Amino acid sequence: MEVVEKSKKFLKIKPNLEDYDKTYKKFKWKQAEKEIECFSGRRLNAAYVALDKHIDTERENKLALSWEGENGESKKYTFFELSELSNKFANVLKKLKVKRGDRVFIFLPRIPELYVAFLGILKTGAIAGTMFSAFGPQGLRDRLQDSGAKYLITNSELKKRVYEVEKELPELKYIIVTDGAVDKVADKAAGKKHGFKEINYKEEMDRVSEKFNIKKMKPDDHAFMLYTSGTTGKPKGVVHSHKAIVLECMTAKWVLDIHEDDRYWCTADPGWITGIAYEILGTWSNGASTLVYEGRFDAEKWYSLIKKYKITVWYTAPTAIRMLEAAGDVYKKFDLSSLRHLCSVGEPLNPQPIRWGLKAYKLPFHDNWWQTETGGILIANYPCMNIKLGSMGKPVPGVEAGIVDDNGNKLKVGQQGNLAIRPGWPSMMKEIWKNKKKYRSYFKKGWYITGDVAYKDKGGYFWFIGRADDVIKTSGERVGPFEVESALVEHPAVVEAGVIGKPDPVRGEIIKAFVVLKKEYTQSKQLEDEIKEFVKKRLAGHAYPREISFVDSLPKTRSGKIMRRVLKAKELGLPVGDLSALEEY
Q: 74 with 12, same domain?
C-alpha cells in the first residue's frame, strides 16, 4: 500500500478496491442479500449466515476461532466444530423449553463458551443478550430485570454477583454454569434456596445431540440486544434483528477489507456491539479466521499475539492506539510484517495516532463511525479512499447521511448540525425494549437523529464535532471537545485528554481539559501554560483550555470511550448517572 502524507490533514492512498463513488451510486441492499445468499423464502437466521452456511463446503474444516486465555492457554475451533458445539447448546436450551423471543443473557469473560452460546441462542430463535464480565450486581439487575430474562449463562465466580440481586429477578428461571458444580442453595447455613435452577453446562452438553434444526426467522425478527448507558436513568435495551447481518457482512468486506484467507483480530468484547458485529457475525459470514484474547491490555502481549497468529487485519480502539504509542518503541521487538490493514472505532480517531501508526507499522489506522443503535458501520474511511486526517470518512453504499438542524431540516455543506441517517439500512435497531416513546424520539422528519454534531465538507467527507450534549458554547462560539482533544494529544507531553465545558459567568462556558501525561513528564504550572499556548496556536483564541487538570487516567467505558459526562459531573459536583459500563480500558 502506497501512503503519502500530502499535508497535516491529508493522506493519499493508492486505491486497491473498486471506486467508491461508482459503487455508492449504483448499490441497492437487495444486491447484498443475494450476494451473501442468506434469504430463503424471506427467511433467515444470522447464526446460519455466520457459521452453518460454511458446512459442506471447502470452508467447513477451516480455522474459525483461535482463542488465547489471559494465562497463555489456547484453543482452536473450525467452522464445523463451532457449528456442532452451537447446535449442542441450542439443544440444551431446547431441553429447558426456551421459546422464540425469550431473552437469554450471557455474562462471561471472553472464553469460547461465550461464542458458542451466542450462536446457539440465535439458532433457537431466542434473543441473545450480552453483558461485560466487569458488571457488578446493580448493572446485572438493571439489564436482567428490564429484559425479563429467563436464562443466564455465566461461570461459578460471576454467578455470585447474581445471588446479591436475585430477589429482584423473579423472571430468571435458569442459570447455566460453564464450569464447576452447580449450587442448590445460595446460603447453605440459612438454607435459602434460589428462585432459579442451576444447570451444569458441561454435563448437559455431553448429553445432547450435535444436530439441530435451525429456526428459520423472518428478517425483522429479534436476534440480539445490548444495553447502553445514559447520563440519567437506567440503561436502555437496544434490540437488533437477524437482518442486521446483511450490513455487518458487507461492511466487514468493504471497510475492514476482510477476505476468507485473513487472520483477523478485533479487540472488542461482545458486551459491546463491535464484538458482536465484527468479531462474530460480520467476520465469520465472510469466512475469515478470528483471534479472541481473553486478557486485558498489555502492549508487549498484544504485539506478541500479532506475531504469533500472523494477524493481517486489526480492528481496535483509539484509546488502545494511544496507549500503544505511550508504550514507546516496544513494537520494534516484534515482527509485525503480517499486518496489512488497520481500523479503529469507539471514539473519533485523532490525527496523531494515525501518524504514529504510519511510523510504527507503516500503515494508517482507518477510522469509522457507527453506534450501538445503528448495528454496524455507516460512515468510514475505506481502503480505497484517501484519508483526511480526523475525518469520519464517507457513508457506506446503501446509506444516506446528512447534516440537519434541530427541526430536521437539511443544512448546507460546511454547516455544523446534527448528524442524521435516512432510516432503512438493514442493521438499524428494531426497538428500545419496552420503551416505544424513547424509540420514536430518535426520528424526526424522515431522519434518524444520531445525537452527534458534525459537518460535511465539499468532498463528501463527514467530520465529527462531538455529542450534542458535549459541544461547548464559549464566548458565543461552538467548540467540539474532539477538536480540542486532538490538538492536546499533538503536544509531545500528552498521552490523552478529555475536554468539557465548565459554566462561566462571562463566557457562558470555558473549556476545561483533563490531561494524562507521558511517564517522562512531570506536571507543573510551566507545562500547563505551555500546553495552553500550544493549543491556542493550533486552533483559535476562544478554543483553547483555560483550565487544565493533570490526572492519572480518564474514566472510560470498556469499549474505550472517554466518559466526558463523568468528568463534568465530578467537576460540578453533580450526579454521575449510570456507571455500570465504566471501566479502565
A: no
